[in-house]
Amino acid sequence: MSDIIQLLPDAVANQIAAGEVVQRPASAVKELIENAIDAGADRIKLIVKEAGKTLIQVIDNGCGMSVTDARLCFERHATSKIRKAEDLFAIRSMGFRGEAMASIAAIAQVELKTRRVEDELGTVVQIEGSKVVNQFPEALPAGTNISIKNLFYNIPARRNFLKSNSVEMRHIIEEFQRIALAHPEIFFSLHSENNELFHLTPGTLKQRIVHLFGNNYNQKLVPVEEETTIIDLKGFIGKPEYAKKTRGEQFFFVNKRFIRDPYLNHAVMNAYEEILPAETFPMYVLFIDIDPSKIDINVHPTKTEIKYEDDKAIYAIIRSAVKRSLGRYNITPSLDFDQETSFSGMISSKPLEEIQAPTITFNPNFNPFENEIGTLRPSSNSRSNDYSSRFEREAIPKNWDTLYQITENESPVQLPLIDTEEESPEAAEVVIPKAENKKSFFQIHNRYIVSQIHSGIMLIDQQAAHERILFEHYKEQLENNQGSSQQSLFPTTIDLSPADFELMNDILPELQTLGFQLRPFGKTTYIVDGIPADLGNNINEKQIIEQLLEDYKHNRTELKVNKRDNLAKSLAKSSAIKAGTALDNEAIAELIDKLFACESPNISVHGKPTIITLTLTELMEKFDKI
């Protein structure tokens, strides 16, 4: 029997390796920009077309490469970063394996233009599928210009697994933001379809965060800085009141390399314990500087996982540093036991010369004995029965006995079936149903609806019930294209981050089907001309759309649902009535009728129950009567 084990050709081995290193266009963007940083560039320009599927181009002013290096960089395990195995534990550069360029060249058409400062002519290398097509000298500026065209052109199956352009573009923006955050001293720009999305000038870390995520982040940031013998920690964390429902802006960098580490993330979340709103996540951009010999970064092909020599100590340092920053900048509640508060409200902050004595004004022509029509009342010495009877008629109302009558049909004033930001004074009261109503139901704490049924009682979560109703309503509109719109009196402008702008482009057709009238305006801005008619009049367009995007990203990450279901679920959650909203009997009856008209009235959109029933037998067991 002949031998069956054979060495794979280099081209096939490179394509296999590319499956680990280059998973999508964003992976190629990461590798190319990191190579430019390792080359010492301080100006890096990224150009993409069709979300990197057609073109990914990175232009830098780094050290460039010689003729030999320009050809050798496309070979497997060819690198200038390390020379021996021990160098793996002293790495300060971004790349070190020497696999990225070989992997990219195996699955794309690559053109490399490079020149060193000391050379008169540069070199152009053209490669397709690991094969060098052409190489020739050319007059070029100092630095490197590398273009990747038609990614996965020779592996159609891999290309078919790529998502839509908007999804792939979001991944590119995420990788670009991570690298730009790690190097605020470098100029970066990102161009997509001849539009400049980012123009990041060199500056401080705080300036880079604001330039990437928006000017409103300037007031959200709290600095963190801690120096120890184990690690040096610095960066910024977000204030608790600005926490979001998604883990969007959470970045950990170890020696300026972005990493994913649930263990360290737990340390940050632990520091926010008891001051963070439920089911929300704070933003943070934290940099850990550590001795390379104390970590191992050769764990994952994408180099986003790291092993630490003493991870428990790092956990404790991060937790205490974040907690100290929250307390230092008065984010967490604090008590001053030395302050005397007995007379604090009586002390005036004004100087004595500015304090004025109170004055009294009076009417010198006032006559207490003159009645309303100008005639004099009887004198105080007059004790006639006529005056006494007239006084009694004026002071005591005729219908005084009706003040203590309680009508059977009286019901308290309630709010309609809409969301209100502030709870009404009657919110804590139990709504008493009208006596003539055949259906008996009322609210408890303005959160649950209680209804009497034949076998016992039924409890309904009003927010979950309304979300179920709206979810099926919006889902039907998306399927039948039947959404109606209400024109806004004044158009609203919404500024989004580049990632959210790409997300909006992706779901724009579905939003228009639901009734939103949106149009892009500029690089990352949308104008809202109208909203769905069934949202009502007292709706904040900007708030509802921002909340919609946050819920959509959360559902996409956690639930993995399709686009239409995700959008219907997100809009239902954003526009449903909230717990604490008072409802009148008519609104309660309408809510119950619509709930039982749904396909799945018993289950909320999050898979939890909307209705709970308690039978008379169960109630009797509670009172120990069985």
Uncertain parts: 334-347, 379-438
Give the helix tally: 16
Query: What's the end-to-end separation, in Å?
Result: 82 Å
Largest sheet: 8 strands, mixed
What is the radius of gyration computed over CA atoms, rounded to a whole number of angstroms? Answer: 35 Å
For the largest sheet, list the strands in their spatial order. Answer: 5-4-3-6-2-1-7-8
* Overall pLDDT level: 78
> What class do helices, strands and sheet pairing give?
alpha+beta
Molecular structure report:
The chain has 626 residues and is α+β, with helices and mostly antiparallel strands. 31% of the residues lie in helices and 21% in strands. The strands form five sheets. It has an eight-stranded mixed sheet. Helix 2 packs parallel to helix 6, helix 6 runs antiparallel to helix 12 and helix 8 runs parallel beside helix 9.
Brief account:
The chain is of the alpha+beta class and 626 residues long. Helix content is 31%, strand content 21%.
Question: Keywords, please?
Answer:
single chain, 626 residues, alpha+beta, eight-stranded mixed beta sheet, five-stranded mixed beta sheet, 16 helices, 31% helix, nuclease
List strands and helices in order, with pairings:
Elements: H1 10-21, H2 25-38, E1 43-49, E2 55-60, H3 67-72, H4 100-106, E3 109-115, E4 122-128, E5 131-138, E6 143-149, H5 156-160, H6 165-182, E7 187-192, E8 195-200, H7 205-213, E9 221-227, E10 232-238, E11 250-254, E12 257-259, H8 262-271, E13 284-289, E14 295-296, E15 307-308, H9 311-328, H10 385-395, E16 441-444, E17 448-453, E18 456-461, H11 462-480, E19 485-495, H12 498-514, E20 517-520, E21 525-532, H13 541-558, H14 563-575, H15 585-596, E22 611-615, H16 616-622
